[in-house]
Amino acid sequence: GQSLEQPSEVTAVEGAIVQINCTYQTSGFYGLSWYQQHDGGAPTFLSYNALDGLEETGRFSSFLSRSDSYGYLLLQELQMKDSASYFCAVRDQTGANNLFFGTGTRLTVIP
Amino acid sequence: NAGVTQTPKFQVLKTGQSMTLQCAQDMNHEYMSWYRQDPGMGLRLIHYSVGAGITDQGEVPNGYNVSRSTTEDFPLRLLSAAPSQTSVYFCASSYSAGTARGQYFGPGTRLLVL
C-alpha cells in the first residue's frame, strides 16, 4: 500500500519562511508532487521532484531525499495569500499519472 | 483555453436518486480522472481514463460509473446516491508524458446527499 504523512497544521508569520514536511511509503516511487488548495478551491500544482535535491520555483522550493523517503516544501517571504492547504502526493499504482494524496497541511499566515 | 470545467457547481440529492457530474477539458489531454475529497482529507481516486473508450477503477469506485466517448468529456454517474457520497468531486486531466507538468483540476462539484 501507500501512505503519506504530513503535519495537519502549521502557523507562520508574514514575511517568514516555513517548511512543510512529508514522509512517504510506497512500492514503486515515481516522484513527489506538491499541490496548493485554497478554501473552496481546486488543487493547483506547485512542484514535482523525481530526483534527490532541491527544485526552486520563485518563492517556493521543494526537496526530495529518496533514501529517506522524505521531502519538504519550503515557502519563503510568506504572504497572507499563502494561507491554504498544502498536499504532498505520489503517483499511484495505476500507471496513468494518478496521484495518491496525503491528508494535507493547513498553513495559516498571521500578520 | 477554459482548462477543466465541471458542472454543476453544487447539487443536493435525495438518497436513491441518480445523477451525472459533467467534466470537460480543452487541452487535448489523454488522461482524465475523478477524485473525491471529504472534509479534512486528501483526494481519493474514483475512476480514471487513459483515452477515449478506456476506463478503469481507482481506489473508491463503488457506486460510480464512468464512460469516455471523446477525448474532451469524462462524465461521472452516481447510480443510486447515498449519504456516504456527500463530498466534493474533482475532475482532473493530464498529458500522458508523466507527472512533471502535474494534473490540472477542475473547480469541483459539491454534492450533498440527504
Commentary on this structure:
The complex is a heterodimer of chains A (111) and B (114). Chain A contains no helices and eleven strands. Helices cover 0% and strands 56% of the residues of chain A. Chain A starts with a strand and ends with a strand. Chain B is mostly beta strands. Helices cover 0% and strands 49% of the residues of chain B. Chain B is globular, with a radius of gyration of 13 Å. The chains are: A mainly beta (111), B mainly beta (114). At the A-B interface, strand 5, strand 9 and strand 10 of A face strand 5 and strand 10 of B.
| Largest interface, chains and sizes | A-B, 26 and 28 residues
> Radius of gyration of chain B, rounded?
13 Å
Mean pLDDT of chain B: 93
The total strand number of chain A stands at 11
**Separation of the first and last Cα atoms of chain B:** 36 Å
Structural class of chain B: mainly beta
N to C succession of SSEs of chain A: EEEEEEEEEEE
The overall average pLDDT of chain A, rounded, is 94
Percent of residues in β-strands of chain A: over 45%
**SSE arrangement of chain B, N to C:** EEEEEEEEEEE
Q: Which ranges of chain B are low-confidence, i.e. pLDDT below 50, for 5 or more consecutive residues?
A: none
Dominant shape of chain B: globular
What is the rounded Rg of chain A? 13 Å
Number of helices of chain A: 0
Structural class category of chain A: mainly beta
